[in-house]
Each structure stands twice: as C-alpha cells, then as structure tokens.
Amino acid sequence: MPYRFTKMNKIDRRRKAVLIVECDIVKLERQDLALGDQLYAAVKLACPRNLVDLVRADTKANLLKQLGAIAETSQRYRSIVIIGHSNRDGLRLTSDAFVEWDAVANWFSPFDPHRMILIACEAGRWLPCAALFKGISGLKEIYGSPVPAYKNQALFVLGLVLHALKAEKIDKGLIQLMQTGNLLITKGLMFRNTRHEYERGGEVEWALWGAAEPLIDQLMSRLRG
Asked: Does residue 46 form part of some domain?
C-alpha cells in the first residue's frame, strides 16, 4: 500500500499533493537507486502540512492495486515524481511490465497532474514528452533528462519539488539556476518542457529536437569523460 500522510493537522490545499512512484522497486533497490524514501522524508520534513504519497511498484498487479486504492479516494496530485528505468520508447513500470509512453500517460492521467518530474533515462526527449502531453490533458510541464539520468540528480529534483510546494508560481530564473547547478555538479541534464512550447512549436519543431538528440548524447558523453 502507498505511504500516506495521516496526521490530523490540516493540509495546505493551495499547494496540492505530491505523488512519488518508484518503478520496479526490486531492481532499483538492487542498484541502490531507490530514492523514494529519501525524497518522501525530505519533503515531509520541509512541508509537513502537504500531502505526499509514496508508491513502490514491484508487479503490475500490485501497482494497479495501489493506484486503484488512491483513485477511489478521488485524490489529485499537483506533481508526480517517477523514479525508474526508461528509454525514448517507454518506461519499465514494474518488473513484469515495460510500457510505451502513451501507456504511461494512461496510468497517471486519472490523477490530473499539473507537473511530472522524471528521474529516468531519456525521459526528457521529445517523444516521451509528446506522448505525455497528448495523453494527460491537464499536464503543463515536464522535467526530465534527454540523456541517461543519475542518482545524484535527486538533489535537483528535491529542490524543484520543494520550490513547487512553497512558491505560488514557479520562478523560471531559479529553475534555470538549479539546472545550471545540476549540470556543473552532477554533469547531468534536466530539461523543462512546457505544454505551451509543445503546442506552439508543433510536431515539426519537436522532430527537430529529436534529430538533435544524438548530438546532445555525444556532448554529454564527452563531458562525463
């Protein structure tokens, strides 16, 4: 079952809730990449009045059971953080289910997220983002890496989640500063893709970004040595 914040103190409804999902938890734990508990604890410590749920997925049946239990409460999440293994084609949702990105959208669209933050390889590429924007009508922004994602990028994600919970409006300048710090400290990329940019640019512009992704791969590979 998902971890849920059940204390009686009032939840700050202005800032909505956060859902953290660890995909294929057994593999993440084996690789020391299970970051959900750390993120959950840090967010609850900093924002004790905000609802944060943690779902740890092992099998497809168990994930369906956990998400189904939440869906029955009609809970909605302002932000969804997904931790897992992926590529441009899809996400290893559980040990027995690798699903394409349009199917990922189907799994999480009932929770009506405004923001998705993906600690997963190549999840910030144009194809995954396009599928998520198409499949989740209320989704406004996606944070994800266009190249392999690394454990130490969790610090960036934590900072992003805390800023999103505390600020009435996302500070673009601060996000850019955090992205620069992430690049300098972890040598990793985390792009911010918005629905406005997606709809304004259309499929052609996003396809051009897709064509540029191999060059980004080469540059980041050289940077990491």
From this structure: yes
Coil, helix or strand at residue 48: coil
Domain count, the chain: 1
* CATH number of domain containing 37: 3.40.50.2300
The model's pLDDT over 139-190, given as tens digits with 9 standing for 90+, comes to 999 999 887 777 777 788 888 888 888 877 888 888 888 888 877 777 777 8
Query: Which H or E run contains 80?
Result: strand 79-83
**Is residue 2 domain-resident?**
no
| DSSP-derived 3-state class of residue 222 | helix
Token duo for residue 27: 């593999």
DSSP string covering 116-154, please? EEEESTTTTSHHHHHHHHHH-TT--EEEE-SS---GGGH
- Mutual angle of helices 36-46 and 154-166, in 10-degree steps: 30
In a domain, 203, yes or no: yes
The answer to whether residue 78 sits within a structural domain is yes
The predicted pLDDT at position 54 comes to 97
**Token code pair at residue 216:** 């980004």
- The whole-number pLDDT of residue 104 equals 97
Helices (H) then strands (E): counts for the chain: 8, 8
* Tokens found for residue 13: 């409804």
Q: Read off the pLDDT of residues 200-217 as tens digits, 9 standing for 90 and up.
A: 866 655 565 555 556 555
Question: Which residue type, as a one-letter code, is found at position 165?
Answer: L
Can you give the residue range of the structural domain that contains 139?
13-224
The pair of structure tokens assigned to 71 is 């869906």
| CA–CA gap between residue 223 and residue 24 (Å, rounded) | 29
